Amino acid sequence: xxxxxxxxxxxxxxxxxxxxPHTRYxxxxxxxxxxxxxxxxxxxxxxxxxxxxxxxxxxxxxxSSTLNVAISYAGFVALGLPxxxxxxxxxxxxxxxxxRATLNHDxxxxxxxxxxxxxxxxxxxxxxxxxxxDVAALDEKTSRIEHAIAEFEGVSLAGRQGAGKLFIDxxxxxxxxxxxxxxxxxxxxxxxxxxxxxxxxxxxxxxxWLPLAAGEFILGQPxxxxxxxxxxxxxxxxxxxxxxxxxxxxxxxxxxxxxLGEQGRLYAGGRDxxxxxxxxxxxxxxxxxxxPDRADPALVGDENRNNDFRYTVDPEGVRCPLSSHIRxxxxxxxxxxxxxxxxxxxxxxxxxxxxxxxxxxxPGDDESEHGFIFVAxxxxxxxxxxxxxxxxxxxxxxxxxxxxxxxxxxTHRPQDKMVIxxxxxxxxxxxxxxLCTGLPQFVETRGGDYFFVPGMNALRHIxxxxxxxx
Amino acid sequence: xxxADVAGTGRGDSIGSYRMANVEGKAYAINVVTPxxxxxxxxxxIYFWVILQAIKLxxxxxxxxxxxxxxxxxxxxxxxxxxxxxxxxxxxxxxIGRKNFPYLGDGQPVEDLKYDYMIFCSNFTGTWDAYIxxxxxxxxxxxxxxxxxxxxxQRTQPLTPFKKHIAAxxxxxxxxxxxxxxxxxxxxxxxxxxxxxxxxxxESALAMPPEKFDAAYxxxxxxxxxxxxxxxxxxxxxxxxxxxxxxxxxGCDTAEVR
Amino acid sequence: xxxxxxxxxxxxxxxxxRDERRHAxxxxxxxxxxxxxxxxxxxxxxxxxxxxxxxxxxxIDDVFFEAYPAHADHLRSPYLLFTSDFNGDLDDYLxxxxxxMPEFVRGVWGNCYGFPGTESAPRFVEYIKRCQITxxxxxxxxxxxxxxxxxKALDLQRKMIGFIARTQGLDAAPLQEAFRSFVSEVRxxxxxxxxxx
Lengths: 470, 258, 197
Fold this sequence. Notes:
Radius of gyration of chain A: 22 Å
Order of helices and strands of chain C: EEHEEHHHEHH
Radius of gyration of chain C: 22 Å
Largest sheet of chain A: 5 strands, antiparallel
Order of helices and strands of chain A: EHEHHHHEHEEEEEHEHHHHEEEHEEEH
Number of helices of chain C: 6
Structural class of chain A: alpha+beta
Helix content of chain C: 25-40%
Structural class of chain C: alpha+beta
Largest sheet of chain C: 4 strands, antiparallel
Number of strands of chain A: 15
Oligomer: heterotrimer
Low-confidence stretches of chain A: none
């Protein structure tokens, strides 16, 4: 299968994810147009694309580190993008995440006054993402970039954020701080040249899985509504670009462990089943829909099986609660129309944990710097990320849950609850629904913004100041 | 009219002497006014009449498979899908002939219009964007069936020009009242079902011995476990959203927003 | 009859508004300003009537121009669009409407041609019917349900959630007792008023 997408024009870590254990984000501020452009020119050669790494002469072809560039609206203003281009960006991107905090339910514990200063002040113009096979590789790339910054007056490093896979029991894992395995279920995208796996794309009429239209994620390609997604002008600025949502999400590990412990004692199915019900997957990632009674390492280890399920076989949420996290994030065919609606609200996730892991059995704390750097890629922030955040995470109407929010990431009010549905086939107390009430705030936003990830050709134009509009 | 803006605004900005009041709690009042060439309006009137007869004859929910073409053409399928989408409380289409705008005399000038007009008014739950998306994605044929008779009609697909067309023909509501602003269409349905099941259960339950009651209560709960929607008009960021979490759990000071 | 579905009536009314060029301040602006000053939700005068589920007012300044090849068309007067979704008989509804909120009716329709004032309910009913347009197609999600039924059901729903959460884990006998009290509590009057949250 040959790729129709121009992988060497699309930046990396989009349609294909990187697999490196270490990550560092650098937040660059631009105060002078020319300096900003020269800085970008100086790092252009290092920017990694989505082209596959080819093995050659015995070496794997995989670099020791990667570099990618994303630009906020304020960043484009600072880089002197022409006015017509600026005006043609979607409204939500122009406003930025801070201005839209109330809409996104970044309120209460998540409100901007509690964000890290660099995010509160809108200082992040250019977001550089570095992935590395070890810390030395990160440091090497970081120091080269710092040298480049030092060369140009009018460009400064406003801050940085470290992140990386959680190191648990002697190995790097795919788990996050609450203990769940994460990252299963990214969408298959059409045109990558790589065969899809069941459960990740969209459902076709005959029950098979197809990749999603590339235009749901990459500008300049047809999307699921069979049109080109709304894009800024000119075409060469937008083509092969995508929008990125970057959110630093602090996790209250102690509150979560305590709540799970308390409720797990009250819930007849026990702590591990309850934890699975919150998310829709067991700790190890086994989906409840496929294995409602226990985790299944063989199943979850098989990429062709670990995501191959639908929800219309479980309309009442008996196996996987209607309010569980993965069911809210992607309701699949539960919309009653074969998934047509869900297909328009998918996101690619490229997030990473930050902060050290709290060992099992320890209560942990809520104060330490630990959490998740949530990164989502989509063609339309408003229709994809924001829709999920506003309508599916912080509202429950589409799941028959009224105002109830996602237990893990929703912004909770005192009256919020999660219903764990009962099983009509049982004769014991598990036949009854179990209501989780008194929900503490488990996740708090500590910053972030909306960015544009330009294609390589676009990036060259931006760096040279040669973007032109009619 | 971005999704987020509509979802966010409880009632529009009421500072100053005017406001637009398309939203009231969870309900949205949309009004779309479109012109029709008179002979096409006549065809549309016949079409509406056919649909009404079909509803009367066949009944809403009782369409055998082999009449599915008829179901499509008479919009029965569209109406079934609309019920499944569960976002419209009440909706109506009205046609006004160019000579039939209400005339009250008393100095009113007589209208001299070239076109007939259709006014579409709907009360729905959810965002404007989700609503128009559903027209385009789920029931395009049904919507086109009615609106294709209007002047310069923009078909439901592709989506973006269709949204522009609707927005250009939308008359904003100046005042909107809902008797239950905190309840969506789904919330209402779930509550009505719950009430019916509760009444049925309560009648027999209290007379049973406790162990029998216990088992019967489990059966009852299973039936209504997905009818427990928390309602109330505090969803949407523009409304007063007091995201208070138990303060002692993690030392976060409660902050009242807006 | 197309205005009706079940016991639900879809009322659509277009009232011509006095020509703004001959009167100052502009009548459509006055209507909008008045509507803006009126409370909403449970503070709305409309909440005095339980009959209607949804009511809207929209000033239609003019019809929309669709651009070439359409012709530009213009209304000679602006119109006040009034829609209501209620249960029951039209005459009865309109009579109760003007009786329950005469000052609101005057504030809204006072600037309209042929408006007869609020002293005579039958004349108001007649006026509205002169302005009524027949609904061609009407869709109601719950065609036979009244507002009172909806409010009662929503109230029960709230209370049910509380009951289930409170009694989670109770043994059979105390559970039944609790349920007994709950049933009596529910049978008392509903606490949800029209237009309330």
